[in-house]
Amino acid sequence: MTNSTQTKLYPEIIEFIEECLTREHPESYLISILHKLQERHGYLTREHMYEVAQRLQVPASVVSGVSTFYHFFRLKPRGRYAISICLGTACFVKGADKILEAFRKKLGINMGETTKDGLFSLENTRCLGVCGLAPVVTINDKIYSRVTPQQVPDLLSRALAD
Ligand code: FES
């Protein structure tokens, strides 16, 4: 289908798909391909998904179904500061839902959305393996522990000051 002038995919992703096609059950590598693509581009676009489907010779509906089913795939660009609120059990029982509510109110966005200025996105995450520090929030690569809803404005100011 695609020649080099039409492709929307990155060369290393095309190379990886071609390598998968030489293996048994290439379609079983779909999640790995989408992970690599998201790592490279930040999120999955409709054009990317369509081209992955074409190259991997699977229906486009399968690629879009997998991309929307798994919470770790992003279908929209992330903000400059990606705020993840751990909604694992330990964090949840310590009030993660109230922290999420405080972020939602302060930023005016829901989970999975990005502020209009492109600065902040709200995401959820499963257990980060530091349950003793619950409830936990990450902003990009920084971890904040025992967060309270009252700390939310301060966390946002600190992110902007970094
Ligand atoms: S449940 Fe949040 S870190 Fe484990």
What is the topology?
Elements: H1 11-21, H2 30-41, H3 46-56, H4 60-69, E1 81-86, H5 89-93, H6 96-107, E2 120-125, E3 137-139, E4 142-144, H7 152-161
Parallel strand pairs: 1-2
Antiparallel strand pairs: 1-3, 3-4
The structure holds FE2/S2 (inorganic) cluster.
Describe it.
The chain is of the alpha+beta class and 162 residues long. The chain folds into two domains: 11-69, Arc Repressor Mutant, subunit A (Orthogonal Bundle), CATH 1.10.10; 81-161, Glutaredoxin (3-Layer(aba) Sandwich), CATH 3.40.30. It has seven helices and four strands; from the N terminus they run ααααβααβββα. A hairpin with a 2-residue loop joins strand 3 (137-139) and strand 4 (142-144). The longest helix has 12 residues, at 30-41. The protein is elongated and about 55 Å long. The model has no long low-confidence stretch (mean pLDDT 92). Residues 86, 88-91, 127-128, 130-131, 134, 136 line the site of FE2/S2 (inorganic) cluster (FES).
SSE arrangement, N to C: HHHHEHHEEEH
Number of helices: 7
Would you give the CATH topology of the largest domain?
A: Glutaredoxin
Can you tell me the CATH class of the largest domain?
Alpha Beta
List the bound ligands. Answer: FE2/S2 (inorganic) cluster
Number of β-strand runs: 4
Query: What's the structural domain tally?
Result: 2
Which word captures the global form? elongated
Provide the residue-averaged pLDDT.
92
**Reading side by side through the largest sheet, how are the strands ordered?**
2-1-3-4
